[in-house]
Design the sequence.
């Protein structure tokens, strides 16, 4: 049996406290019947050892009634429970004293003088009316509680009836007024709203509603757009038209939410719009998409301007980086970039145990070229030499102008033997064919392979010493550093 009611307060068929009150009434009847039976049996000596069980049953039922009352009170109900709690507690105490008193009188431990012929009759004369009185008192209190719950139920029914009548009155509001209100709301919002309906078995939805702002944004004719789906897309930019129509058709076929951005042409102006809608199935098997149309031209143009500015900034940074790391005349890497690269390649060569070689070369008798033909011709010689050398290098090789007519070539993954072949090849490329105006030009090469843990200055000096050795040997030669 449930101790508390789990009925909702708004239930019109039963009150929230009906079940606990019925339980208390039933327990009170059982307690009274057990008390009455106990007194009859005790008076007629119709039992022996079962007396304790009857008293225990009486006490359990009384305690159960008290628990029901406590749970009912804990639910914070507005019922008048104070008197009921006192009555149930008194009933429990009466039952609690009945058995010890009867046992004392029967055992003779208590000397009680009674005008009646037998002490059992005396107890019955006292306890039967007392229990009857408690039963009547508890019943009166329960009846009062029942009456209170019925009044609550009547109030709830009255409130519910009033609420239902109010709701029915609202439902009876004319449909035209509701539609007019909805239309006014959609007309005053800053975005275009629309509704598209796809009939059962259809492939292309038609516009069933277009707000004033929607017509303003698209420049469409309301009747034409509502009658023909393709005419509704007439404002879409020609370059976006086919993709936009196909995407809409796929969305209608799959009955999925739609979101897209496209260009439209309104009054010979290109605008950007975003359209977003969600499908809703109708009872007749058709599907309706309710969506919004937003003009995002300013946002798109601002983003494009930001992208162009970012690209321009990246290009400017790249140009600054190029100017900071390349030689302006020849286009080869400059000395700053070469020094950074030398350190990085030395660390990589040491980490992976790979060979690394360096060529230092310069143009023979370059001062005589400048003195004979002028500095402009000398600059052309430097540019042409750079072009010839760069055309025969690997992607990992680094060619840099060290200063004046002197160049440095860094050869990663290349030992002294391979570097010697590269130097001989480049020496021949410089010597033949002749340079314009300046004629035949030669160059001398000094070569040094980097040794593990060798300092950069020492490595450069060994290569530079090899270059001077080549010049001392007659120029137009390659010499390998010791």
Sequence:
């Amino acid at each position: 049996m449930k101790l508390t009611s789990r009925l909702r307060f708004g239930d019109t068929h039963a009150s929230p406290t009906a079940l606990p009150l019925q339980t208390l009434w039933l327990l009170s009847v059982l307690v009274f019947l057990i008390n009455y039976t106990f007194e009859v049996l005790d008076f007629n000596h119709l039992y022996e050892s079962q007396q304790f069980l009857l008293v225990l049953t009486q006490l359990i039922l009384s305690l159960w009634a008290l628990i029901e009352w406590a749970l009912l009170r804990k639910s914070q109900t507005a019922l008048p429970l104070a008197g009921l709690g006192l009555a149930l507690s008194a009933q429990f105490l009466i039952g609690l004293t009945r058995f010890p008193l009867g046992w004392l009188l029967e055992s003779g431990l208590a000397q009680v003088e009674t005008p009646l012929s037998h002490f059992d009759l005396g107890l019955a004369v006292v306890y039967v009316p007392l229990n009857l009185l408690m039963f009547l008192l508890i019943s009166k209190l329960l009846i009062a509680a029942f009456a209170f719950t019925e009044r609550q139920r009547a109030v709830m029914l009255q409130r519910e009836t009033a609420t239902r009548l109010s709701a029915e009155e609202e439902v009876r509001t004319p449909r035209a007024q509701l539609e007019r209100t909805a239309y006014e709301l959609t007309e005053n919002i800053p975005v275009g709203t629309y509704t598209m309906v796809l009939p059962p078995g259809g492939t292309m939805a038609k516009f069933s509603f277009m707000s004033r702002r929607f017509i303003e944004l698209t420049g469409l004719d309301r009747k034409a757009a509502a009658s023909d789906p393709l005419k509704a897309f007439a404002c879409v930019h020609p370059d976006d038209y086919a993709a936009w129509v196909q995407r809409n058709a796929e969305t209608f076929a799959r009955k999925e939410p739609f979101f897209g951005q496209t260009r439209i042409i309104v009054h010979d102006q290109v605008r950007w719009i975003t359209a977003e809608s969600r499908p809703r199935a109708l009872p007749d098997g058709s599907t309706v998409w309710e969506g919004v149309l937003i003009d995002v031209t300013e946002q798109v143009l601002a983003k494009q301007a930001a992208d162009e500015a970012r690209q321009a900034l990246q290009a400017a940074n790249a140009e600054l980086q190029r100017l900071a790391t390349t030689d302006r005349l020849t286009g080869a890497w400059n000395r700053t970039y070469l020094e950074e690269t030398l350190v990085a390649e030395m660390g990589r060569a040491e980490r992976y145990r790979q060979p690394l070689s360096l060529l230092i070369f310069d143009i023979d008798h370059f001062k005589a070229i400048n003195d004979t033909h002028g500095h402009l011709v000398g600059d052309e010689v430097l540019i042409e030499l750079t072009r010839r050398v760069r055309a025969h290098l690997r992607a990992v090789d680094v060619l840099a102008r060290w200063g004046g007519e002197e160049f440095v070539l860094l050869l990663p993954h290349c030992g002294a033997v391979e570097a010697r072949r590269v130097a001989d090849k480049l020496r021949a490329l410089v010597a033949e064919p002749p340079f314009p105006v300046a004629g035949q030009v030669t160059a001398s090469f000094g070569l040094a392979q980097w040794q593990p843990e060798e300092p950069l200055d020492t490595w450069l000096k060994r290569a530079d010493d090899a270059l001077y050795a080549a010049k001392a040997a007659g120029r137009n030669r390659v010499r390998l550093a010791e």
Q: What stands out?
A: The longest strand covers residues 269-281. Strands lie at 192-198, 206-210, 258-266, 269-281, 287-295, 356-363, 398-403, 406-412, 443-449, 478-480.
